[in-house]
Design brief:
Number of helices: 8
Helix content: 10-25%
Number of strands: 28
Distance between the termini: 29 Å
Structural class: alpha/beta
């Protein structure tokens, strides 16, 4: 995906701008009551001006940069590859002859993202009890962000990626585009907008909530589990069976896809209603917003800082990123029954250290006491007869599936050690998707041990997947090279999860 690269304007207050010593320091966390007292005058002034001068429809149009005269249900992406709308849209069936449950189909796929479902399907989900849905406001959202050193992030229209960090952030999914979002930690608010689809990689049902933006009421919401059994790595279909869909049942638009989330964990406590005109107050410049937020407006990639940021993009394909110093990775380990979905009895163990800087991911690690040599490390094109194939596949069909992928998206040649998309080993449960994201180098140091390494330029969506804890390394093994009678596990001898327990926001 190409990202716009244009000049960016940045507004950041200096120490002199913060006023007298009695004014709270912008870099110091505030209590909610302190933040409310500071914000009330300016935000309410902005809000009153917005409501007085503009009807709700005009406010929505200013936020989105899209002509609101379009009839409801018209998709911004109509006529493009992203649009998969259909008046009779049904769940996508697997291609003829494929097995959607085959955990070792490594080929890359692109089924297209579902932004609408059929009107019939839109009515089948669970609704909301309006009496149980709370209300919020620009004042409350802004105060929470300031008190936690959180951010306000608005990617605008287009096809965007948003990665936020540790605070209680406000993410504006209202620009009538398609957003891929990693919220980080904190108690985050994602504002849903009409004709906007927000794919949220790490929605935390215990802390995060969805704000119903301009023109969306509690009566418009349908909550349901996805029905699409296909897998495609980071390009996983929006309506995958592992995802919860939040649908506008008036027109079948998918407002949000919460990946790796069960629909029965989402309830009224995960929603907030919002009065008309509120969103403009968050996006308006004021003495207070400029004091407590480092504001950037522009297109392309906008990088955050260690203080509270307000990043606002336009209508292009943009990337709002928390910055290189907003996270770190713990050491990830494998072995001892961590292989999923096929547990092994291998004595092998492994570990990986991960870095991500300026979009470049570096992996370094090692493995030891494996039963078999790394797959393909001996130049083989067949499976060792003594190897254990835990998914019951025909050995030749299994190896043919591996051989079908000669290189990854960056041109790295095939190996038996892979980077994949899906979490396991944290509070979301265990998932697997064998689509190859990248091939990782594997160098044997003896018959049972070796090192692994890789350096990859990740797309913004892949960075979002990594920082949401949705990646894992799988070390496939095969040949008995030391003659001890124990060959490897072509379906994977060790899985190393780069999950939420490994990714730490700072």
């Amino acid at each position: 995906m190409e990202f716009d690269r244009k000049d960016q304007t940045q507004t950041q207050t200096t120490a002199a701008d913060l006023g007298t010593a009695s004014t709270p320091n912008a870099n110091s966390p505030l209590s909610e009551s302190q933040g409310a007292a500071i914000l009330a005058t300016d935000l309410n002034s902005n809000l009153n001006q917005a409501v007085t001068n503009s009807p709700a429809k005009a406010v929505a149009s200013q936020n989105s940069g899209v002509d609101d005269s379009k009839p409801m249900g018209t998709c911004q992406n109509a006529g493009t590859a992203l649009c998969t709308c259909s008046a009779n849209r049904q769940s996508v069936a697997p291609p003829s002859g494929s097995n959607p449950l085959d955990e070792h189909d490594h080929t890359a796929k692109n089924f297209g993202q579902i932004t609408h479902v059929s009107m019939e399907a839109a009515q089948t989900g669970r609704g909301l009890d309006g009496k149980q849905v709370g209300k919020t406001s620009a004042l409350k959202l802004g105060t929470r962000a300031i008190a936690s050193r959180g951010d306000i992030l608005d990617p605008g229209g287009g096809t965007n990626t948003v990665i936020s960090g540790r605070g209680s952030d406000v993410i504006m999914g209202t620009g009538r585009g398609f957003n891929t979002i990693t919220t980080g930690t904190g108690k985050d608010a994602i504002v849903l907008g009409q004709e906007t689809t927000n794919r949220i990689f790490d929605f935390d049902a215990a802390n995060d909530f969805l704000v119903l933006g301009e023109g969306i009421s509690v009566n418009d919401i349908s909550i349901q589990q996805g029905t699409n059994a296909n897998r495609a790595g980071v390009n996983q279909p929006t309506d995958n069976v592992a995802n919860t869909l939040i649908i506008d049942k008036r027109n079948g638009h998918v407002l949000a896809s919460l990946t790796f989330t069960k629909a029965d964990t989402i309830s009224e406590k995960n929603f907030r209603a919002l009065d008309p005109g509120q969103l403009q107050a968050l996006n308006s410049d004021s003495r207070i917003t400029n004091r407590f937020f480092a504001t950037q407006r522009g297109d392309g990639q906008l990088n955050g800082s260690r203080r509270s940021d307000r990043l606002i993009s336009g209508g292009g394909n943009d990337f709002l990123f928390l910055g290189n110093d907003g996270f770190r990775f713990e050491k990830a380990t494998g072995g001892g029954g961590t292989e999923f979905p096929f547990a092994t009895d291998s004595p092998g163990t492994s570990e990986v250290q991960t870095e991500l800087k300026d979009g470049v991911m570096k992996l370094t690690g090692s493995y030891k006491n494996f039963d078999g040599a790394p797959l393909f490390s001996q130049g083989e094109t067949t499976i060792d007869p003594k190897a254990r194939i835990l998914n019951g596949a025909n050995p030749q069909a299994l190896v043919n599936g591996f051989l079908a992928v000669s290189q990854d998206s960056e041109g790295n040649a095939r190996t038996g050690t892979h980077l994949h998309f899906s979490p396991a080993g944290d509070d979301r449960g265990n998932f697997a998707d064998a689509t190859v994201v990248r091939f990782i180098n594997n160098t044997a140091t003896d018959a049972k041990s070796g090192t692994i390494s890789g350096q990859f330029k990740l797309t913004p969506e892949e960075q979002a997947a990594l920082l949401s804890g949705n990646m894992y390394v799988n070390i496939h093994s095969n040949m008995d090279v030391d003659g001890d009678g124990r060959a490897g596990f072509p379906t994977g001898e060790n899985r190393i999860n780069l999950n939420k327990n490994v990714v730490k926001f700072v």
